[in-house]
Amino acid sequence: MAVGKAKLIFAITLATLIPGLLADIAFFDEVWQKRAEEAKKVTLNSYIPNPEDATDDFNFEVNKYALARNSSLKPDIVDDFGSANSTLVDFDDDRNDAGFELHANSTRRNLKQGKKKYLGPCKVTNPIDKCWRCRRNWARNRKRLAKCALGFGRRATGGLKGRVYVVTENSDDDVMNPKPGTLRHAVIQKGPLWIIFSKNMNIRLSKELIMTSHKTIDGRGHHIHIAYGAGITIQFIQNVIIHGIRIHHIVATSGGNIRDSVEHYGIRTNSDGDGISIFGSSNIWIDHVSMSRCTDGLIDAIMGSTAITISNSHFTHHNDAILLGASDSFSGDELMQVTVAFNHFGQGLVQRMPRCRWGFFHVVNNDYTHWRMYAIGGSKHPTIISQGNRFIAPPELHLKQVTKRDYATESEWKTWTWRSENDLMMNGAFFIESGKPRTKRPHKKFMITAKPGSLATRMTLFAGALDCKSGRKC
After folding, report:
1. Helix (H) or strand (E) holding 110
2. What are phi and psi of 417, to 5 degrees?
3. pLDDT classification of 473: cutoffs 50, 70, 90
4. Which residues form the Pectate lyase domain (predicted)?
5. Which of 212, 336, 381, 470 is the most interior residue, by most CB within 10 Å?
6. Cα-based angle 66, 72, 74 (whole degrees, multiple of 5)
7. How far apart are CA 37 and CA 46, in angstroms?
8. For residue 27, how many C-alpha atoms fall within 13 Å in the half-sphere facing its CB?
């Protein structure tokens, strides 16, 4: 009953508000109207009525990975991960501490751009990475990545069913007729594509990069920077993977005619300067991305977007990091469900890691080493389940609180479900919980609890874009 009501509210709200909140669409023509309607259907189909099942499923995968070397496990669990091509870290073995402490100390990391480079043998430290990393043949089997997502964005397969498209040059001179071999030409093509790059590139987007459905942007093997221009727009589409790129110094750009598919172009208003903007889209996975210094947000997910996982990424030097739900008046975001996992929130961050409205948010095994206002915030009664994160508070007494609630009295926000489970609080950090403790007993296959916050540093050691080389373990 509650789910049906939420879906009805979403449909009504989306129909009434989309014309007024079009995210840079200057003319909402028939093509965009059709995309909006299709996106709404995908959102409804992607919504999970019992989101705690998804969080427990995520926890199950984390713990199955962590225990995979235990000889008492059944063979099928060991086979799921394999051990021939990688070094597995046993989180519960204190003998691993000495090596890791060289790279992750008990307070703040010794960071360059927020992170010290690891120079040891290839290691995997969480179940997403275990699925594909530390295999010599990763470059010949890139699409294996499509099987590795966890959390609410776990259905994202991107361009798995399509051909490989190789970006050969970094130009972005013609947004109406993109040149073949450019990233803009790749992302507007029909059908699924797995987009890779032929060499290191610095891509300065002259206008926002408007993607189409069923695409993977895979930067592994080269240093791919999207910088000093516009950012990436994921609007009214589905099934996108963005992996292994560096997005920084994104600026607001002017609008005008921009081609958004092979068959259509339209007039856009000025872009805001978001690194990645997700608008009314579903089944999105952002993994191993390094982001900093954007004019607006690093990642914004708004207007009915759902089924999103943000994982293994490294965020630095920014004010408003991640915004999940942009409007207190858009109740359609009650269907928003997002997993934020294995990320490092590092140097120079101020707030919104993330800032949430309306929906359900699983924030798990992240490492928070810097903030200047707060780490996790929200309004309009979002459900936030924080599990196994490490929070290191700034030295100032007035900045110790992890959480921040907006536009609500204490009598109101005390009913919101914000729970902290197995988080590690350091340097005086504290998380103000609200709502009733979780009492729902999960399905028996989800019985193992999340890994504790004391292990968050290890699990996020390789957050951000990786230095992968073809023929070598990544």
Report:
1. none
2. -90, 100
3. very high
4. 200-397
5. 336
6. 85
7. 14
8. 10
CA angle 254, 257, 261 (to 5 degrees): 120
Whether 165 and 186 have beta carbons less than 8 Å apart is answered as yes
Burial 50-74 (b: 16+ CB within 10 A, else e): ebbebbbbbbbbbbbbbbbeeeeee
Q: Where are the alpha helices (DSSP H) in 82-155?
A: 97-101, 127-130
- Give the residue extent of every domain in the chain: 38-61+132-459
For residue 202, what are the β-bridge partners? Answer: 225
In tens, the pLDDT along 184-199 reads: 999 999 999 999 999 9
The residue with tokens 């490989």 is 164
Residues 6+ apart with CB under 8 A from 328: 357, 379, 380, 407
Quick one: which H or E segment has residue 221?
Answer: none
357 is catalytic: no
d(CA 274, CA 236): 17
Query: Any idea of the CA torsion for 181, 182, 183, 188, to the nearest 10 degrees?
Result: -80
- In order, the DSSP letters of 32-79 are HHHHHHHHHHHHHHH--SSHHHHHHHHHHHHHHHHTTT-TTS-HHHHH
Contact of 271 with 208, CB cutoff 8 Å: yes
Q: What is the mean pLDDT of the chain?
A: 85
Of 3-7, 106-110, 340-344, which one has max mean pLDDT? Answer: 340-344
Residue range 38-61+132-459 in CATH 3.30.70.1290: no
Of 352, 355, 405, 458, which one is the catalytic site residue? 352
